[in-house]
Amino acid sequence: xSKKKKNMPPHWALKFLRLFIKREYIEEIEGDLEExxxxxxxxxxxxxxxxxxxxxxxxxxxxxxxxxxxxNYSISPAGMYQSHFKTAVxxxxxxxxxxxxxxxxxxxxxxxGILMILLISERYSFDDFHTQKDRIYxxxxxxxxxxxxxxxxxxxxxxxxxxxxxxxVPGIDExxxxxxxxxxxxxxxxxxxxxxxxxxxxxxxxxxxxxxxLQGNPQTALSEPNSVVLTRSSARKLFGDADPIGQVLNVExxxxxxxxVIAGVVADPPMNSHMRFDVLVSLSTVVKPFSETANDxxxxxxxxxxxxxxxxxxxxxxxxxxxxxANLMGDYNKTIEHPIRHSLQPMETFVTSNTYANxxxxxxxxxxxxxxxxxxxxxxxxxxxxxxxxxxxxxLKRSKEVGIRKVMGASRSQVFTQFIMEALVLAFLALVxxxxxxxxxxxxxxxxxxxxxxxxxxxxxxxxxILIVYFIGFTFIVGLLAxxxxxxxxxxxxxxxxxQDASKFTLFSKGVNLRQVLxxxxxxxxxxxxxxxxxxxxxxxxxxxxxxxxxxxxxxNIPIEGDYINLLEAEIAKLPEVLxxxxxxxxxxxxxxxxxxxxxxxxxxxxxxxxxxxxxxGSYLRMHELSFLAGSGxxxxxxxxxxxxxxxxxEKGLQTLGVDSAADAIGKTILHNGNSLQIQGVVEDFIxxxxxxxxxxxFAFVQANEASQYKSLNVKISSANLQSSLAKLEVAYRKHDAxxxxxxxxxxxxxxxVYEREKTTFTIVSFLAFLAICISTLGLxxxxxxxxxxxxxxxxxxKVLGARLQNLLLLLSHEFLIIVLVSSAIAIPLVLYIVDRMxxxxxxxxxxxxxSDSLSGLAIMLSIGLLxxxxxxxxxxxxxxxxxxxxx
Length: 888
Prior knowledge:
By secondary structure, the chain is α+β, with helices and mostly antiparallel strands. The protein is 48% helix and 16% strand.
């Protein structure tokens, strides 16, 4: 580039100026602007001078300086748009095949766009019903926990810091304490009993949160011990239409009974609430903090038991409150090795943040939203590129139409508007089809498992009038994006050039042109999504088929709530299809409420070390066929209250205790939570939770000595009629528990549920890959149509000279092969990196990525591409060559 050109103003801004400013003013204005531009360059920099030049150009777009638009001489703007609309509709009808392909491609992206608009709208509506949402915060904790010295962030805090905030820190209107552990209890009346879940909450609950209290006094409903507030649905289940206020209920929680009084009825929490409950019980029923005898509860170190919410004053600043908490913890932090730091989490992030280890309620992280939004934009851009490619391919046939319009007096802006109108009409037709597609995929999307939702429904994806306005705006933008480039390029053709032979008509520059870039982008997306889907599915299948180290075949696990498990086991064991039974506190490979961690030490390793513990009976290890390296399993189950004397550990536990071999470990004594236990056996390592990274690799089986310690009854069955067998199990279960639902799960199904996240990822990626392949195939069709239209006479001549179909296929697919290979070279390494970091990195045991996996996307796209191009070439090849050459 010459020095003279470098010192000139932006060329595009100058062209823009000449396009709109009246001819009689342009010379004088250009001179003044250029003079000002050079002064600005001398005083500042070239970049700043360029910006000022552009701003001055746009300032000159005044009514007295702008050229008169062509349509003002003839018809009104309304009449012009009406004419363009009619012409667009006629054109779409005339070219039905082209229109159908584009409508289908855009409708796919619009359906995904509608889904994302609804998802984002509902996601950001969480907790909006709280009138003081912008002032509600949760106190969080950052501290070092565990023997490994890991820093964790907790969504809980301590009674101490909450009480200090309330009493000593200005700018806080109210503080609410809620027990971190959810309440799960049986509520019993004289006529009925139901199992419901909820929270223990302090008296100020309704002063902070805007849940609709239908009956009762919000100031006193949770102020007294043993007072409860039921949701409307729970009250109806227990009392029907009778007034529940003042009624006395018996409550059984973990074998403990107490009587409570109903002090209020609250409306059921809406779907967009981060806090879901059936009942609220006064916190003073179970905890009496701030009393002289509650030293452990009041300790600043007790940061796991309570959630602390606060209502910030409108004039207060969040950073001042955080600073005040640091000062309140200052003296205590001087007495401990690792300081405890508290912060505040705003309510708007309760559902979006995945930072905290013990968060409450459903979660749909900001990261997940961004990933899904990015994928939606990729599909949308790909569909818009499609329209561009197909429009440009079709433009070869429309060049004479553009020429006639310009000869008849149409301006460039009128031609531009005509093509934009066509794109908008097509986009709104795609919106209708997209809505139908959305209603087809909506049930499947809602049924996708979302482990982070904590068993709650998070989304309804219902359309309302406001969202319809968003859909229309979204479709308008899609139409503009899709139609802008074809309209811009086609409208600039000169009338004389438009009447030239189509074979000499060039839409794109030589070398690497825009059409090739757009097509390559589509191929890269399709190839990347295919490879991603293949790898995620392989890891999912690998996880399901992996040898866990114990048997799961034909085992049904029944969750138990109560102390009747021994009676139920004895009755079930009598069924002819039951081969064997066992009991455990939780299910290996799945987890459960009975999971526990015990601190273990030995003579060889006196430092307390965490072991994952499962309390089992005498037949558990035999029934699940765990492999022993040394020693033996438990010979019998312990009686109620009998002393625990033995333990069985795994290989990792052996290494943790510092014992050289399994044989040497037998008979050694360890301390488990202060109890002396003798090692009776050592089993091979197995998968305790999942193939994902484990926090505690050391494992111990301990015999349970109380029926209430068992949370799962494991039943091995052999039956040709599984439904009949399950029905018999339910009959036996109902004799002992008429309150809780009967939930019998086949072990293999439970293992599969552990990997629901991977299954969901595979489903979403596969769906998007399918959409991308459809859109890319349409784009490929556009490329083939363009190539054949521009080389139609060449093909006819080659055919006359004796060329065969396969020769033409090799010749004309050359460009496609280069594009798809370059796209693969870009997409495959990028996808392998993303999958490795974001999916496979979570697994200890993972698949080995093979060359065939990496090339799967390339193979599929090559097959589809060659079939598409071959089909188009054959269509041209079978035609009479004289049709293409008759004008020569």
